[in-house]
Amino acid sequence: MAEEVRTGGTAVSREAFLEAALALGGTRRKIVAVAGAPGAGKSTLADWLVDAINARQAGSAAVLPMDGYHYDDRVLEARGDRPRKGAPHTFDVDGLAVTLARLAADDGRDVAVPVFDRSIEIARAGARIITPEARLIVAEGNYLLLDEPAWAPLRASFALTAMLDVPEPILRQRLLDRWLGFGLAGDALTTKLEGNDFINMRTVLEKSIEPDMRIM
């Protein structure tokens, strides 16, 4: 496909990003980051990337979801942050940084990572094991490229970065559909969207650094 150059990032297809990730090469483990606003489809893309890589060599890629680093609801409630769950300050970014450092160390040991269980809205500790055979890690999450002091250190771990480029009207509709699917309606739905999700969406769109690539 023809590539459109944007400020700070080249617009590519998901297939082109896959090839760029595979081309990183080298003997040490590599970590690539896929960021995007809520509703952009990060998890779906990350799973597709890992499946495509593992189809070539089984077990050679793994996903690291940022959502596993949500603070527990008990912590959020104690801090008065439960209504803003999903905002940058409701994640254990330091814990994520430690995990990225462990993966980057590539010391031949398993790394247990947490996974967010949407059925109960809680992160499960040690829910996934990333084995030494995983040579390419796809980290995915809203704020991986956030231009804020707490989040900026994460970027040192990434060999390649991408942002899912989804128009804002589509993001809004997807978020609306998501919560309608969970049975929210009326004031509860409005509060969830206007008081949290749309704010988080604008944070990603307006406060992220430019990626290496934009996935269209």
From TrEMBL:
Alphabetical keyword list: Kinase, Transferase
GO MF entries: kinase activity
Domain of life assignment: Bacteria
Keyword Transferase: yes
Keyword Disulfide bond tagged: no
Identification of the protein by name: Nucleoside/nucleotide kinase family protein
